Amino acid sequence: MARMAPTLAQLFALLKNDEPSDDSEIGILFGTSPEILQAESPAGANELSVREAEVAEWLLDLQYKDSSVSATENESSSPEKDSDPLNKEGSKAIEKSPDYIEIYPYLVKPSGSSKNASPKSEEKYLISEKGSLESKEKQKESEEQSLISISEGGLESKEEEESLEKAWDSSEKGEAPTPKPKKSVRMKCNENVSVSVSVSVSEIPSMSKLMTLKSCPSVGMSLESFDQIDSSPMFRSNGAGGNGESNAMVEEAWELLKKSYVYYKGKEVGTLAAMDPSAETLNYNQVFVRDFFPSGLACLMKDPPEPEIVKNFLLKTLHLQGWEKRIDNFTLGEGVMPASFKVLLDSHRLKETLIADFGGSAIGRVAPLDSGFWWIILLRSYSKCTRDYALVELPEVQRGMKLILNLCLSDGFDTFPTLLCADGCSMIDRRMGIYGYPIEIQALFYFALRCARQMLKPERGGKELIERIDKRITALSFHIQQYYWLDFTQLNKIYRYKTEEYSHTAVNKFNVIPESIPDWVFDFMPLRGGYLIGNVSPARMDFRWFLLGNCIAILSCLATGAQATAIMDLVEERWEDLVGEMPLKIVYPALEGHDWRTVTGFDPKNTRWSYHNGGSWPVLLWLLTAACIKTGRPQIAKRAIELVEQRLSKDGWPEYYDGKTGRYIGKQARKYQTWSISGYLIAKMMIENPSNLVMISLEEDKRIANPRLTRSASFPP
Ligand code: GLC
């Protein structure tokens, strides 16, 4: 007997798995009317009821499963580690040759992944640190020497290893997860939404009040306008819903993306950073974790989705996390995820080997703080798309998440909830004065915490971790919303700050000297709009604009609704500076002259308006597009996409552009840069089908919206 279709409200409550406790919130994906859902799916209401049951089960699982703690998983260090002969061997090697960085798994097994393989066949892996100085042949030689069969292993317990193998095997056997049937929705009249939520000039003086912990009107509004959304197969175009020229570009992009696939044991595990035959490869022939994120999203947003590569990537990088990471005599934290990895083929022995870089080979030797966050966020996107919750629930996936979080949530000397970082630890992976508390990392940290909050199970220490996460996200959002926010009113306040205020009554809490405000900020700051500044620490505010951090803050709801709207206003108001002729400036403005010399250390690759120092990066288009859709302003994204379509393909999909307006192909830019390609694809797919946004966007967290903050006496009324 046909089941009655549930009401819209019931559907939202059941299907939205963002926050189990928030049953009143609405997710964009499910913002389609029941009629539309039924029209799209012949199974109609029956199919919905199956989904209801699955989701309800998952929610129950998340909330109520017994929280018994397993001793084995709680132990973060491997019991095998000490007894592992490789460890001893490793330390000998270091004594012998201090020039070597050593990276090897706790348990190395021969390729073929036999569980019963003899440990005798284990081999060790060394990367020559002199590589860059050595001749190419020598480098090749050392790579060959370094070949090992790092195919499996690196896990704590046999069961974990076995289940990771099973997960890996199941995708080998083609047991691909069932992707969620896609609903195509299209936003109409969204600019109307923006009009109603924009902050008018007359409201600006009260902006500092508006900015505090308010709900996100933009999202609410766009969800309310769902009756204006239609659904039709013509929008299921994988990005090719435009004119002839842009369709050809989309087609080319899909072909190039496919060509960038990297295979390991016959399965796709990631995408190359770039495929430029005319330039030196350096490490662009590797799979970068952060670069794979947009590629993975493209595969998830595709209709029908191709989630296997994402699953394989998640499992392989998780496996690499299990390696012991050592630079000279120093062992890196267990949770550190690689910046990149590659597959080496030993043609003599017909053996494939994984090589990973955890920062030990990177310029500046900085560990990629963002990799673990991107990994967690992608894991959520994957489960949002496929509903393959079994992957998230694997003990080793849970453990991988916990290790990443433990690195960031451990007690220390911190007086702020923000995360202290070294320069160059994220997308900007060279010295650029972003050490301290850069907005990019804080926003990704917050995003990852909230994603992990949804996926962590209470067992095996998960409950305590969830409690720590809850506290941290409350404190972090308060700190960022209060101290990183800059608009006209706030700038005026800082400009008039008094200094040397001792004690808790201080207004100028970080003792920022007003003379340190750079001149350009006064011109740059529009009356309408605002943004989260680059960095805040004692006596230091980095007023530079960073696109990635601001967009991630919007997507994760780290920025309040009013702030999100104001950020989009700023992009509109300062279009020439932030978008110019080629989207999008990674940072504004560029460091020049004395600042460039002292802050970058005379970096010749980061001269003014080039590369990380004010260069324009097409990959950032997807972030702007997602933020635009979330704030109900898709027209802004469409303008940017049009600019990209005029040149990106013709120019050979460069990594970045140079110049104040982004007119010139970057001096050292790689062509056929994969994330320029996939970034364009996902921007197109999101504009054509905004329901894709649900994979990379969070709803407001009600627990944070009404935080129980202990306010100091100095807190402004
Ligand atoms: C550059 C970028 C970095 C990126 C890498 C690979 O080093 O700065 O963010 O991950 O290239 O594309």
Give a quick set of tags describing it.
717 residues, alpha+beta, four-stranded antiparallel β-sheet, three-stranded antiparallel β-sheet, 29 helices, 17 strands, disordered N terminus, binds alpha-D-glucopyranose
Question: What would you say this structure looks like, in words?
Answer:
The N terminus and C terminus are likely disordered. With 717 residues, the chain is an alpha+beta fold. Helix 9 runs antiparallel to helix 11 and helix 26 runs antiparallel to helix 27. It is built from 29 helices and 17 strands. It has a four-stranded antiparallel β-sheet. The longest helix is centred in the middle third of the chain and has 22 residues. Bound molecules: alpha-D-glucopyranose (GLC). Alpha-D-glucopyranose binds next to helix 13.
**Distance from first to last alpha carbon:** 60 Å
Q: Quick one: how many beta strands? A: 17
- Strand sequence of the main sheet, in spatial order? 2-1-6-7
Question: So how many helices?
Answer: 29
Secondary-structure class: alpha+beta
Task: Summarize the helices and strands and which ones pair or pack.
Blueprint: H1 8-15, H2 34-40, H3 44-64, H4 71-74, H5 79-83, H6 85-96, E1 100-105, E2 126-128, H7 136-145, H8 158-172, H9 190-197, H10 207-210, H11 217-224, H12 244-259, E3 261-264, E4 267-271, E5 287-288, H13 289-301, H14 308-321, E6 323-327, E7 330-331, E8 340-346, E9 351-357, H15 369-386, H16 389-393, H17 395-409, H18 439-455, H19 462-483, E10 485-487, H20 488-495, H21 519-524, E11 530-532, E12 535-537, E13 540-542, E14 545-546, H22 547-555, H23 561-573, H24 575-578, E15 587-588, H25 593-600, H26 621-630, H27 634-647, E16 657-658, E17 664-665, H28 674-688, H29 702-705
Antiparallel strand pairs: 1-2, 1-6, 3-4, 5-8, 6-7, 8-9, 10-11, 12-13, 14-15, 16-17
Helix pairs in contact: 8-14, 9-11, 12-28, 13-15, 13-28, 14-15, 15-18, 17-18, 17-19, 18-19, 18-22, 22-26, 26-27, 26-28, 27-28
The structure holds alpha-D-glucopyranose.
Alpha-D-glucopyranose binds next to helix 13.
